[in-house]
Amino acid sequence: MKQHVNVSTIMTQNVVKLNITDDLTKAESLFKQHKIRHIPVVNGNKILGILSYGDLLRISFVDAVDDEDEVVDVTVYNMFTVEQVMSKHLVTVAPETTIKETAEILASKEFHALPVCKGDLLVGIVTTTDLIRYLLKQYD
């Protein structure tokens, strides 16, 4: 297996993002529309935090309701801001961080996505799914 491949080769570059001023209803819509589990929160391109689908589940009944109970979600979402729910203590990696180093970080933490940043500017995101896909390609 290749030892020194940069994470930039497997990261998602066209990142679905939330602006710090967006609401949680928009967040839920983005999660479902794009079938993703993590959304970086930005002000411009400057990263401020990351919101996970699990963060929404903690404050609502997102998976437990049907379309008729949508009003419940909206009411709960209106009680919180993105900033209140997102994780603010970020661990990020640089584009030149190796895939191995990235995997080590994810294996040792309790999260499944890392923003890829140049300084505090978001340039991508890498998830455990990206790492698994990379690993599987090594067997081709």
Describe this structure in words.
This protein is α+β, with helices and mostly antiparallel strands. It has one domain (7-137): CBS-domain (Roll), CATH 3.10.580. The protein is 36% helix and 20% strand. It has six helices and five strands; from the N terminus they run E-H-E-E-H-H-H-H-E-E-H. The model has no long low-confidence stretch (mean pLDDT 88). Residues 11-68, 86-140 form the CBS domain. Keywords: CBS domain. This is CBS domain protein.
Fold topology:
Elements lengths: L17 E2 L4 H11 L3 E6 L2 E7 H7 L10 H9 L3 H4 L13 H10 L4 E6 L2 E7 H10 L3
Parallel strand pairs: 1-2
Antiparallel strand pairs: 2-3, 4-5
What form results from the Cα inertia axes?
A: elongated
What portion of the residues fall into strands of 2 or more residues?
Answer: 15-25%
The strand order across the widest sheet is 1-2-3
**How many structurally independent domains?**
1
Protein name: CBS domain protein
Organism: Flavobacterium cauense R2A-7
InterPro entries: CBS_dom, CBS_dom_sf, Diverse_CBS-Domain
Keywords: CBS domain
